[in-house]
Design a protein that fits this description.
Elements lengths: L2 E2 L18 H7 L6 E5 L5 H8 L3 E6 L3 H10 L4 E3 L8 H9 L5 E4 L25 H11 L3 E6 L14 H10 L4 E8 L10 E8 L12 E2 L12 E2 L3 H5 L10 E5 L8 H7 L5 E5 L5 H8 L35 E2 L17 E2 L9 H8 L16 H6 L10 H7 L3 H21 L2 H4 L2
Parallel strand pairs: 1-7, 2-3, 2-5, 3-4, 5-6, 9-10, 13-14
Antiparallel strand pairs: 6-8, 7-8, 11-12
Helix pairs in contact: 2-13, 4-5, 10-12
């Protein structure tokens, strides 16, 4: 049966992510090879980066979007990246690319029912994950037999049912169990692992061996939460603590590459800046004078619905009339002294900087997602409507822009926490096996 784990905090798991043992260094000292990772549905590579930070080697990625794949390739230069729809990749092609050096771990966030379009119009019950891209994730497990498979998705997947009333999560676990895996799932909150963003994600773990603690214990807490004498947790950075050292720019300002200007102000900023000579992707969107005035009229926590009527958006083709449709979630000014709200794919229109009268830059979003500053995002910062691009046949621009890539990503430090816990658990299990059994 699938297991939802509430893992107790142990002494071994206390402390910040930064303070965790360098697992890769320990393995290297002991003459052991690194675990290897293949990232299906790779996107910009946040999931892979987390495993890399935990000591794994990224050997490959599969991603059909050209700009996201370019980002992945640039930041994981040693990986084989297949820029292709996974449904169009044959078994032979997968085995030719990765079969001779099969990965230890396969990770990915396959779109499932209710959160994406199923792969075929005639696929039957659209709520059944066996009719979705999840089956491609299972196919990789069947072909490559990794020790671990780690799937990420939105928590609402736990509330999804097929037309026959069967929980979707049960089908997902059963399909993985049919390959011989033990399965576990849980919802993790990013702020519990030092990420300055309120973001819940579902993780499903499939392992060839049973795991006593498949999920990492929290390492951090938000400052407003009560602390316990039994849980010495680090403090999760606030939004401002995450981005305050980035160059101050106005709407339309910034550049693809910039000098920092000032030093890091705290440990999180120091960690994000490590090994990065410059600030990348720190370009602000251009705003009209009226929009800047709208943002200036907001207090922290306000959205476009809270500004004076004369500053609210105009109706489309309304000849200057104020729109009657104003969306509460658009252009909300963030509180600087709290973690940020969930960064979505279109966060360029969702959030307003707490002090500068503009939307966030891609780099500010990347900081809030816990991407280090050396991680460069390729493609255009923004694009116009995907529908407009298709209508005008502007196919060279119909890809995921930098904002989309960042908002769609698994926060690297969350992925690192998951990866570190799994890899350390496997290492301890291997070390517990007598030498004669390992050599058998």
């Amino acid at each position: 049966m699938p297991q939802k784990n509430d893992v107790p905090i142990t002494n071994a798991s206390l402390g910040s992510i930064r303070g965790q043992m360098d697992w890769a260094e320990v393995r290297q000292r002991e003459g052991k090879s690194q675990p290897t990772v293949l990232d299906a549905f790779a996107g910009a590579g946040g999931f892979s980066l987390g495993f890399q930070l935990a000591g794994a080697e990224i050997i490959g990625g599969i991603e059909r979007d050209a700009w996201a794949a370019e980002t992945f390739s640039f930041n994981h230069p040693g990986a084989k990246v297949l820029v292709k729809d996974i449904e169009l990749i044959s078994d032979d092609e997968i085995l030719q690319l990765f079969g001779n050096s099969a990965p230890t771990v396969v990770v990915g966030g396959p779109p499932c029912q209710g959160f994406s379009v199923c792969r075929r119009q005639d696929a039957g019950d659209p709520s059944d994950p066996r009719n979705s891209l999840f089956e491609e994730f299972v196919r990789l497990g069947r072909l490559l037999s990794p020790q671990l498979m780690v799937m990420e998705n939105v928590p609402n997947l736990l509330k999804a049912y097929t037309a026959a009333g069967e929980p979707v999560i049960d089908i997902i676990c059963r399909e993985l169990q049919a390959l011989g895996y033990h399965t576990y799932y849980d919802v993790l909150q990013a702020v519990d692992y030092g990420i300055p963003q309120i973001r819940k994600r579902l993780f499903v773990i499939a392992s060839t061996r049973p795991l006593s603690n498949p999920f990492p214990a929290p390492t951090h807490r938000v400052s407003s939460e009560p602390s316990s004498m039994f849980m010495r947790l680090g403090q999760t950075p606030t939004l401002w603590e995450a981005i305050s050292d980035l160059p101050t720019i106005n709407a339309g300002g910034g550049a693809a590459e910039m000098e920092y200007g000032i030093g890091p102000q705290n440990a999180y900023q120091s960690e994000m800046r490590r090994n990065s000579p410059k600030v990348f992707n720190h370009t602000a969107m251009k705003h009209s004078k009226r929009m800047v005035e709208r943002f200036a009229a907001m207090r922290c926590g306000d959205s476009v619905t809270d500004v004076p009527d004369h500053l609210k958006p105009f109706a489309r083709n309304g000849n200057g009339a104020i729109s009657e449709k104003v969306y509460d979630q658009n252009n909300r000014k963030m509180h600087p002294d709290r973690p940020c709200h969930t960064i979505p794919a279109a966060f360029y229109a969702n959030f307003v900087h707490p002090f500068s009268n503009r939307n966030f830059t891609p780099r500010e979003g990347a900081r809030l997602q816990s991407f280090p500053d050396w991680y460069v995002f390729k493609g255009k910062p923004t694009v116009v409507s995907q529908k407009l691009l298709a209508r005008e046949e502007r196919w060279s621009e119909k890809f995921l822009c930098q904002y989309n890539q960042i908002g769609n990503a698994v926060p690297p430090l969350l992925a690192k926490a998951v990866a570190h816990n799994l890899l350390e658990t496997i290492q301890k299990a291997d070390d517990a096996v007598p030498l004669y059994q390992r050599m058998a």
